[in-house]
Design brief:
Blueprint (H helix, E strand, L loop, with lengths): L3 H16 L47 E6 L13 E7 L4 E6 L5 E7 L2 E6 L5 E6 L4 E4 L4 E6 L5 E7 L7 E2 H6 L5 H8 L3 H11 L4
Antiparallel strand pairs: 1-2, 2-9, 3-8, 3-10, 4-7, 4-9, 5-6, 5-8
Subcellular location: Secreted, Extracellular space, Apoplast
Family: Belongs to the germin family.
Pfam families: Cupin_1 (PF00190)
Length: 209
Amino acid sequence: MISPVIFIFSLLLSSSQAAVQDFCVADFEFPESPAGYACKKPAAVTVNDFVFSGLGIPGNTSNLIKAGVITAFASDFPGVNGLGISMARADIAVGGVIPFHTHPGASEVLLVVEGTVFAGLVSSTNEVYTQTLQKGDIMVFPQGLLHFSLNAGNSTAVEFVSFSSATPGLQFVPFALFGNDLPTDIIAATTFLDEAEIMKLKAILGGTG
């Protein structure tokens, strides 16, 4: 006869095993939802879903901001889907900058691995926090707060950043204002900028209207 204690323990063990889902590798055959991507069937998952090699390649800095960003979000790296983590790499050439931006869905930790970076954030009470960072230094940016980083040295700077979400989101302030069809008069009214300056910035960033 099975001991009642052993019987109950075996029931609890089997129940806990049945309730555990080890992972939810993104299935790109279905659209992303606010909750993330749908899960691949376990039989379709391979080791390649858990490996991402893109961060070993420098980003392209031949652009307006002289910076290149490579992301390892759920949309790039299916294995992190649902895990609450992701990463990215930023290469910033001399004179380059990662402009003011936010991550609506995650906090960020920045690690400088090469060069010198001047970085900062602005709190919701408009307090400004800035620091010059050297190789090995890290800085944290709380979720949703505006922040930036720029190359403060005479050689290319490289940052590795981690996020507290597989889908942190990314919105650059300059492009949100001047890189779309938001009417110039609305921008002028809400930012107090001169319309001529707004049109100049739209011409640079690809905006219209």
